[in-house]
Amino acid sequence: MKLLFIIIFLLPLYFKAQYFELPKLNYSYQALEPYIDAQTMEIHYSKHHAAYVNNLNQSLGKIDQGKISLIDILLKISTKSIAVRNNAGGHYNHSMFWEILNPVIKYKNIRIEELERAIKEDLGNIDSLKSKMNRAASTRFGSGWAWLYVDTDKKLKICSTPNQDNPFMDINPDRGIPILGIDVWEHAYYLKYQNKRSDYLNSIWKLINWEVVSENYIKAIKSPLLAYIEKDSWKPYKEFSILFDQINEEVQKNDFSLLKNKSSELAMNALNLKQSVIPKPFPLDETKKLLDEILKHCNELHKMVNKNTKSDLLNDKLKLIQSLKDKIY
Ligand SMILES: [Fe+2]
User: Fold this and answer.
1) Does domain 35-223 have CATH number 3.55.40.20?
2) Ligand 1 centroid to 218 CA: how many Å?
3) What tens digit of pLDDT does each residue of 275-291 get?
4) At a CB cut-off of 8 Å and minimum separation 6, what does 143 contact?
5) CA 183 to ligand 1 centroid distance, Å
6) Distance (Å, rounded) from C-alpha 191 to C-alpha 35?
7) Is the CATH code 1.10.10 the one for domain 234-327?
8) pLDDT tens-digit readout, 172-188
9) 165 alpha carbon to ligand 1 midpoint, in Å?
10) Ligand 1 centroid from CA 64, angstroms
11) Centre of ligand 1 from the C-alpha of residue 143, in Å
12) Span from the CA of 188 to the centroid of ligand 1 (angstroms)
């Protein structure tokens, strides 16, 4: 009876469970014609994007399932598999692509002037933006994307990425929050434009919904993710932080072996961090003091490890270092 219950009710739920889902396309496949044909849209959305979502769900380890957002995956992509990198990127990039091409969305009280002002200040004018984006897109060898993104100084920048990478990813040299992405994979245009990528690029500008891009811009400049990306791009901070987090995670599971093996390396990373150039947005004096404190306590932690100090005292020291680390905004 119990087995029957599992087969009838629980197994279908298990196989149906999908952590990430294909977002609904709230316009028809024909809606972007004549610039993007219906067949391309149907295959692109229902086959390619759907495959990225399915493969992402299959590629994610059980630990990440249900506990991590898509943006968090992208921000820490260097720690994930190639399959997660390609499919998480594919899912995020295409979700944004359908939105910025969306002919239906209209935002109330949209302040398009803010984006217009930023384009003028950072890129000259809209024609300059289009020509720089087209250059980035047309010179991307093979498959990839061209991006308009907000960098950590809140400036508009343009870049291109290979495959399904994007500016959120910590493996990308140009980092920030993407607000407009153009898909330059052949599957995005080949049925209609064949090898003429430049014709596709000229057409795509007739479809961009600038209200959506403006909304993306306004959200991006207010986002706390910019501060996170700034800190994450500070290489000595990141190296220190990754090792500290690994040690701390094991200690929380009552396993002190990594701490014992790596306390010297952690102190060395803290020294490298203290000697590094503090990036511009961080308050200089306050950050210097915090880095001095972190180094002092990492050296003390190393000495405590060598003296076989009690585990609860080691734990307290790690908590103290964590609190100092958290104060670096
Ligand atoms: Fe695509």
Assistant:
1) yes
2) 25
3) 999 987 788 999 999 99
4) 162, 163, 184, 185, 186
5) 6
6) 12
7) no
8) 999 999 999 999 999 99
9) 12
10) 25
11) 9
12) 5
